[in-house]
Amino acid sequence: MCGIAGLIHRGKSSNVGSELQGMLQALKHRGEDSTGYALYGDTDGKNFIMRFKVGENVGEGSSSVMEDVSVYDERKKIVDQTLSEMGAKIIKEERTLPYSLRYEVDYETKDLLDFSQRIESIPGVEILSMGKSLEVIKDLGNAKMVCDRYSLDKLVGTHAIGHARMATESGVDIKSAHPFWGYPFSDVSVVHNGQLTNYWNNRRVLENKGMRFMSECDSELIAVYIAQKMREGASLEEGMKDSLSGLDGVFTYFVATKDSLGMAKDTMAAKPLVLYESDDLVAMGSEEIAIRSVLPHEIDTYDPFDGEVKVWQI
Amino acid sequence: MANIKTSEKKSKAQSMGMHTEVLTGRTQQKFFNPDEAENFYYFGTYDVDFNKRTDLDVMNMSAPEANKEIDNLMSQGYGTIVIKNPQGKHSLGVGILNKLNLIFEGSLGYFGMGSCDGPIVRINGRVGWSCAENLMAGKVVIEKNAGSCFGAAIRGGDLICKGSVGARTGIDMKGGTIIIGGDAGAFTGFMMQRGRIIILGDVGINLGDSMYDGTIFVGGEIGSYGSDAVDAELTSSDQDWLRRKLKVAEIGEDFDVSKMKKIVAGKKLWNYDNLEPTEKKGAI
After folding, report:
1. Within 10 Å of residue B154's Cβ, how many Cβ atoms?
2. For B51-69, how does the pLDDT look when each residue is reduced to its tens digit (9 = 90+)?
3. Which of A28, A46, B216, B236 is deepest in the core (most CB within 10 A)?
4. C-alpha to C-alpha distance for A53 and B94, rounded to whole angstroms
5. B110 touches chain A (CB under 8 A)
6. CATH of domain B145-284
């Protein structure tokens, strides 16, 4: 059991970091092995924001190991050098934790595939997100712990999705935590509640097409699947609708892009989702109490039906 | 509960629509005897006065605290309790085995009003998954929408949602009536064994999948039929019953019930009256 939550403000910005923290904290009983945020902040849109890790935070069942900080330092140096070689200029650098970094990068590119492949060819380095607005922050612990650790409560933006994880299919570590970046697409992120039963079949097909997987978490497949559909020319909504037949299992998932937020529910409707929709705000979560944390007054909510896909714009 | 299988009361229960099938072989059944209703008594229930009314604000209470307080108020004779600020909390109002007027001024989360027997409940909001699961008797009215597994395994009573409901409504239900004013999701009536479901709007795929018995009435479009769910003739007595039920449910009073579809079990999947082969028993 995991919990997912998301919200999108239409026509205005808000303190989405704090709002999502409240929503995810309300769902912590659904899992607090790890919590992740995909926040779409207000930026000038000039530079890429790259969130990446140079090491792991290792919990129960993880195949990773904890390493010395000196290893992280060495990897960071190689990342800096590689960025320089690619002509990417680091405008701003933040190192929240020894293994977790945030760079603002001035880099001219249309396809981030080559960029990402070169950065991630450095052993132990994984890009958590890349985009002009998106920032993926994920770590072990519940929503409040992660929010406090990364000081997310002040982040202002238009929309956000997040995930409270109870690890079932893979270990407890950052690489298996949600959200997943829609590699190699700028500003695409995914969170998922459920299980996918044709994970390995789809993974082999997608890897043969050049897509990369960083974990053994079945949820990562959704991000890669949608990204591949978009590479082939599909819109976000088309890719999501295709996933209803292409992905087997039970799932409710959210996908966010720079200016939109979408949800999809499998044809069995086996995973919960409660949705609130108004002219200026859409808020949704695995349980209504998540929505109540941002809308405490009486509201009208509903459960989307089986096989339903919806996309909202900011 | 009396065994009325061989008495004339059996036909009375059948005429009330409480069951339709005649099972043979080794199956043992006991049906509710309406003549003995007044003899039922739950230890620990309270003599309440419906005119004695109070409010209960549960904003800062956990679900167990709120449910204990409801019990405490009933023990003081309060027969009408208005719950303020339920805020989508889970498991509110569960296990009430008492006559009671209970009003929620807001929405409930999962498992609201589960395992109840007797209360009359009005929820002026939405309910989450598995509302009124295992309801034995009474009436639960939801003014807005409901989540999935609405009325799972209910055995009696009336469960009414004026809005739309999610998937698997009435899953495994064994009696009672579920009435939906709006649309219903996939697998409505999945494995239902008895009782009736009325849906005024559209219904999703696999309607009545693997149903053993019971009846489903649909006013709108049907996504698809589930395994062993088949159409049946809508009789004039069905229509009379539907009109009465919709009136009592406060919804669809003017609905044209003559155009509703009636779905029942084809009973091709029935196998629980077949004797097991002796050799199979030996293996066990």
Report:
1. 30
2. 999 999 999 999 999 999 9
3. B216
4. 47
5. yes
6. 2.160.20.60
